[in-house]
Design brief:
Helices cover about 35% and strands about 15% of the residues. It is α/β, with parallel strands linked by helices and about 325 residues long. It has one domain: Aldolase class I (TIM Barrel), CATH 3.20.20.70. It has an 8-stranded parallel barrel, surrounded by 7 helices. Strands 5-6 form a two-stranded antiparallel sheet. Strands 11-12 form a two-stranded antiparallel sheet. The longest helix has 15 residues. The two termini are about 15 Å apart. Bound molecules: zinc ion. Zinc ion binds next to loops.
Length: about 325
């Protein structure tokens, strides 16, 4: 596959992990989500990964109607690749989770590669009270929650999207998820180049030690073949930038955004998604100074080629 050394920055602007009490900067309304995505693209994100929320309460909302108000605005006002979640929230069934990708046929959709405990309850200790009624039981409920992504579920998402030209951000929260992805590659149900998003630091998945990052990379190389995939990483919470730096130094791509971390520094909330994109960009550019070689961060058109996106607006 392409040997480009351009780094793809993905920005996941709101997600379903954090709740409105945790940060006043978390995008909630369609306008806030659109502004966040456009700001992230302007700061250098080539892909924006999108979830929707109820504009009044901030609760994750996976209905296509919840995505409809912001998708055209983002499409019109920036040229970032749109990546719609099929993860939704860990509490939702796969049929519900895949709906926005089924209806809007995005260039990229996320696809979670295994069932797991997805524990958010440790965050409860940080807050004495919550802005909305749903937040506390939502976090508390993760003590006894399985984020279900069986082989049948994964096949269901692949099948639902198969005629839409949608490619995938394969989310791998643990080593076993790479084995599951290799299984689908072997069966020919997924096609290289695979865009592998390694997720570090969700309780229930792999941790954030440098050994974990190395092991994920080595295992993906061995199982998938380095030529068959593009590697991206995200670190949850305070590990976001250290993991980004590690991966950037290993030739990986980087995902940031308020879905993954609310922070820009120790004890300091990020005031926008763009702020995190800019910081990731500084890290990447530090790794790879310009020296006349152009911008090391992949702009949108270029990364379309790197990932072999099928849409006609990217002729090369
Ligand atoms: Zn997501």
């Amino acid at each position: 596959m392409a040997t480009s050394n351009k780094v793809i920055i993905t920005c996941a602007v709101t997600g379903s992990i954090h709740t409105p009490t945790m940060s006043p900067y978390l995008p909630i309304t369609p306008q806030e989500i659109a502004e966040a995505a456009i700001g992230a693209a302007e700061a250098g994100a080539a892909i924006v990964h999108l979830h929707a929320r109820d504009p009044k309460t901030g609760k994750p909302d996976q209905r296509p109607e919840a995505f409809a108000p912001f998708l055209p605005v983002i499409k019109q006002r920036c040229n970032a690749v749109i990546n719609l979640t099929s993860g939704g929230s860990p509490t939702m069934r796969v049929e519900e989770r895949v709906k926005p990708a089924e209806v809007f046929k995005p260039e990229v959709a996320s696809l979670n590669m295994g069932s797991m405990n997805f524990a958010l309850f440790p965050m409860l200790n940080r807050y004495k009270s919550f802005k909305f009624d749903w937040e506390e039981p939502y976090l508390e409920g993760t003590r006894d929650l399985i984020f279900r992504n069986t082989f049948r579920d994964i096949e269901f998402v692949l099948k639902t999207c198969q005629n839409n030209d949608t490619r995938f951000e394969f989310e791998c929260y643990d080593i076993g998820h790479l084995y599951s992805l290799a299984h689908f590659l072997e069966r020919g149900l997924v096609k290289p180049p695979l865009f592998v998003q390694s997720v570090f630091g969700i309780l229930g998945g792999i941790g954030t030690h440098p050994e974990d990052v190395m092991h994920m990379r080595r295992t993906a190389d061995r199982l998938l073949g380095r030529e068959n995939y593009r590697w991206s990483v995200l670190g949850a919470g305070r590990s976001q930038m250290p993991i980004a730096a590690m991966a950037a130094s290993m030739g990986g791509n980087v995902r940031v955004g308020l879905e993954d971390s609310l922070w820009i520094g120790p004890g300091k909330l990020a005031e926008s998604n763009a702020q995190q994109v800019s910081k990731a960009r500084q890290i990447i550019e530090g790794r790879q100074p310009r020296r006349g070689a152009g911008n090391p961060v992949a702009e949108r058109r270029r990364q379309g080629r790197i990932l072999r996106l099928g849409r006609p607006q990217f002729p090369d």
